[in-house]
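To whoever is on call:

I kicked off a structure prediction for a single chain this morning and the downstream step that reads the tokens threw a length-mismatch warning. I double-checked the sequence; it's 247 residues and nothing unusual in it as far as I can see. Pasting both halves so you can look.
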Amino acid sequence: MSDIQSNLKGNRVVTDYSNNLDGLAGVVILAGGESKRMGTAKAMLTLPSGEQLLDYHVRHASKLQVPILIADNGRDFQTGLDVHSEKPNAPVIHIADYGANVDSNKYDEQIKTGGALVAIESALQRLIGLNDSSLSKSVQASWLLVISCDSLIPATDLWQKLQCEISLAADKKVICLKDDSHLYPLLGLYQLSIEPDLKNYIDSGQRRVMQFIQPLVQAVPFSKEWQNLTNFNTPKDFKQACATLSK
């Protein structure tokens, strides 16, 4: 894209954010699911390398040099990486779900207890605040990268895959992966401008991701190899994803 000059130096992604209207504002890692079939929180799963899954995602996201938001539904999962000292442009921020601390008479109890959209709404609000406080209008970045903890696709690879579609789908405000039969809305880009509409949708009592994104979404096909890295819900699924990652 003309507005973004990105290159790889070793494993580090360096991005020029001048005039970055199509650029990346931040990454949110969705780590608040109950993971009943897995038997443990997916964010705390251990890879064959010994690294925890949350650390894996934070490590890769830090290479993008944007704020990293962890949405863990109040579980306060901690990362073992010293990202603050190594990557000063990639602060790690824990965020509460939208509506988590408001009067229960005003919001539906189910919405307050988690879900992808309330986490994404909170992330959008935080990044809009960071944009307003630290960047001029001419250099504001416009996109939130969403990564769920049922995937081993690195943030750098996901951003490189999806950002190519921004200029090709100018009328779309959500860009996400798809396979032959399914969309992966929790592996995607969300334009910051959708925040008011998403807030209104949640406030009306809705929380279905597909219903909200359907009019907004551009789907990006991905290979079978990536499919094996996503959507793991059981220990067997996770073992298969780890085997694919090691190839």
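Update from on-call: the warning came from a stale cache, not from the record. Cleared it. Sanity check on the structure: The beta strands are 5-9, 12-16, 24-30, 68-71, 92-94, 143-148, 174-178, 183-191, 217-221.
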